[in-house]
């Protein structure tokens, strides 16, 4: 068995066994273009958050987000931070050259150690600055890299900046012959949520209207979840008579359905969007404007993240709520954000519920601010743990773009 394979040999093998599948892509814009590549679902979510923040800080920039086959589940919604989201699954030399020549990005950030040598080489050959982040020991010790040590070293050496997740990986790279100046030990690449904004006047008015009432929020609710949410609220009201439930909906068209369910459940409600006041007798407030989510996350010490109970549900990103200090409950169906929920649950910041009965029990236990405070603090720490690395990466990207802009002006 061959234990060492050069890049030239790999290129010859990939040319023989991997037919080109490059298809005509969208036109490349004339603006600055950043290329982000994700090798896992968690990294894809983190890069999408990075793209959102970068576009806020550098208006006009375009972002191409590519991903490995396993990084995006079939049927999952497209991330909203990038201009284009594409599967990148062919490392055939011809496809790699076509990809690099067409997009000709101004910077590439590769997340994870699942490498595509021809694609990386093609970008390097046309002068694209390359950075790899979230490189850990497990991927470097995979069977692929063990059998292709020369190829792995030559491929990684094309990156001008390598961020490893621990000192062990950094030492491995130095032993492979990678220049120490290229290697930096940094935290894992994690999504860093941008806390949704809030109108200060609305917040002050709501806090005054509530007058210290306990509040819980059911966010992103779907009609299939109305019965469980209202059942939970009725159960919680038996022990906390002044408890207020705020429900935000995924689809404003389901408002009438919710109002009918509330009437049948004999729950008094206010329509926030129509200007109803949250008076002391109101038991449920309805909100359909996504722009108000930041307000409700700040008001409620406990949030049930819906779109997660019914079979076939996919969940919503929990990090916005966690970043604003809300303890979290969620249903069992959250495949689009499984890693984020797992991290929050492991830290004690979130708990899963199976139905209306378990949701009601959890609300009764956690709705008091002092009970939810420990969970909320843990959630805030998880939601913000990736912020420093995201800031570091954005600074590096902007610095590279600024240098290129000056060089282009001089030439």
TrEMBL record:
The 3-deoxy-D-manno-octulosonic-acid transferase N-terminal domain extends over 23-190
Which molecular function GO terms apply here? transferase activity
Q: Which family does it belong to?
A: Belongs to the glycosyltransferase group 1 family.
Determine the domain of life of the protein's source. Answer: Bacteria
EC annotation? 2.4.99.12
* Enzyme class (EC, first level): transferase
Cross-referenced PANTHER family, in alphabetical order? Answer: 3-DEOXY-D-MANNO-OCTULOSONIC ACID TRANSFERASE, MITOCHONDRIAL-RELATED (PTHR42755:SF1), 3-DEOXY-MANNO-OCTULOSONATE CYTIDYLYLTRANSFERASE (PTHR42755)
Q: Quick one: where is this thing mainly located?
A: membrane
Subcellular compartments: Cell membrane
Catalyzed reactions per annotation: lipid IVA (E. coli) + CMP-3-deoxy-beta-D-manno-octulosonate = alpha-Kdo-(2->6)-lipid IVA (E. coli) + CMP + H(+)
Pathway where this protein functions: Bacterial outer membrane biogenesis; LPS core biosynthesis
What's this protein's function? Involved in lipopolysaccharide (LPS) biosynthesis. Catalyzes the transfer of 3-deoxy-D-manno-octulosonate (Kdo) residue(s) from CMP-Kdo to lipid IV(A), the tetraacyldisaccharide-1,4'-bisphosphate precursor of lipid A.
Q: Which InterPro entries match?
A: Glycos_transf_N (IPR007507), Glycos_transf_N_sf (IPR038107), Kdotransferase (IPR039901)
Protein name in the entry = 3-deoxy-D-manno-octulosonic acid transferase
Keywords attached to this entry: Cell membrane, Lipopolysaccharide biosynthesis, Membrane, Transferase
């Amino acid at each position: 068995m061959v234990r060492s394979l050069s890049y030239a040999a790999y290129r010859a093998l990939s040319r023989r066994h991997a037919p080109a599948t490059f298809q005509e892509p969208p036109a490349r814009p004339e603006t600055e273009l950043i290329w982000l590549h994700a090798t896992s679902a968690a990294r894809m979510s983190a890069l999408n958050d990075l793209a959102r923040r970068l576009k806020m800080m550098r208006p006009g920039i375009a972002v191409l987000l590519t991903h490995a086959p396993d990084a995006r589940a079939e049927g999952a919604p497209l991330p909203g931070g990038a201009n284009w989201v594409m599967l990148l699954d062919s490392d055939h030399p011809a496809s790699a050259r076509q990809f690099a020549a067409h997009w000709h990005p101004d910077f590439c950030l590769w997340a994870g150690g699942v490498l595509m040598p021809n694609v990386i080489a093609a970008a390097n050959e046309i002068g694209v600055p390359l950075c790899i982040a979230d490189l850990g020991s497990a991927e470097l010790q995979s069977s692929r890299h063990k059998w292709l040590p020369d190829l792995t070293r030559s491929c990684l050496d094309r990156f001008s900046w390598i961020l490893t997740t621990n000192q062990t990986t950094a030492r491995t790279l130095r032993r492979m012959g990678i220049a120490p100046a290229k290697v930096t030990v940094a935290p894992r690449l994690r999504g860093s949520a941008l806390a949704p904004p809030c109108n200060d006047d609305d917040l002050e008015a709501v806090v005054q209207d509530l007058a210290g009432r306990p509040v819980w929020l059911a966010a992103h609710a779907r009609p299939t979840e109305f019965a469980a949410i209202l059942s939970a609220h009725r159960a919680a009201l038996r022990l906390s008579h002044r408890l207020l439930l705020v429900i935000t909906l995924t689809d404003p068209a389901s408002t009438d359905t919710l109002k009918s369910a509330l009437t049948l459940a004999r729950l008094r409600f206010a329509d926030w969007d129509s200007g109803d006041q949250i008076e002391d007798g109101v038991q449920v407030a309805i909100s359909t404007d996504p722009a108000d989510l930041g307000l409700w996350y700040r008001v409620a010490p406990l949030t049930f993240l819906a779109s997660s109970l019914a079979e076939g549900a996919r969940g919503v990103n929990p990090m916005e709520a966690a970043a604003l200090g809300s303890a979290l409950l969620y249903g069992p169906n959250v495949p689009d954000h499984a890693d984020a929920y797992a991290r929050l649950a492991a830290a004690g910041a979130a708990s899963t519920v199976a139905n209306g009965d378990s949701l009601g029990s959890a609300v009764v236990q956690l709705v008091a601010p002092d009970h939810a405070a420990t969970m909320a603090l843990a959630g805030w720490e998880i939601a913000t743990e990736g912020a420093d690395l995201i800031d570091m990466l954005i600074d590096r990207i902007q610095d590279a773009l600024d240098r290129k802009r000056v060089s282009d002006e001089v030439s």
